[in-house]
Protein: Epimerase
Organism: Lentzea alba
Amino acid sequence: MKIVVFGPTGMVGQGALRECLLDPEVDSVVTVGRSALATTEPKQQHVVHAHFGDLTPIAAQLADADACFYCMGVTSAGLTEAEYTPVTHDYALEAARVVGGTYVYVSGEGANAESNTMWARVKGRTENELLALDRPVFVVRPGFIQPRNGITSRTRIYRYLYSWSSWLFPLLKKVAPKYVTTTENLGRAMVALAKGAAAPKLLRSDEINRLA
């Protein structure tokens, strides 16, 4: 099985990549990012590409994929909708155009195309357009994600928040299971979807955990 992972250096992307590399049924992992990675895993190939609005130049390296995990994301803080849309929407649709197989889009709890909140509206619109495609597409909507196995967020404020709130995770898991997952469970669930596991098209944290 060949899986393409967009955004392998982000917190979610790191989790997805880790589970791909650990799974014996995944023979090849192609990661795509803007900068080089020090890869040591024999079944990982990293592709450096700067212009995600056009993936045609690297299409050959992404061909014959069994699944595509779109884990790229950017914080909406301080951004206009026009600035937030390319990574969240445009590049996600371009990845779906070029990469075949099962497509898994990492969205977020609260995404809604009709929302008054900018990030939720853009993610919701992206979800709707992807789910309308004539191919296997799944949307994962994690809420609070606990980093596991040494994984950290690249965003400073997120690193602080996750560090500060880590002690709350057991409590949140008990009182709000629909909103809590881990990088490990999220990655495992995505790999399960790539393998053809039966699941709803849109998965919240409790469904992610069940599938993992």
User: Anything to note?
Assistant: The helical segments are 11-22, 59-62, 81-98, 118-131, 156-165, 169-175, 183-194, 205-211. DSSP finds eight helices and nine strands in the chain. The radius of gyration is 16 Å.
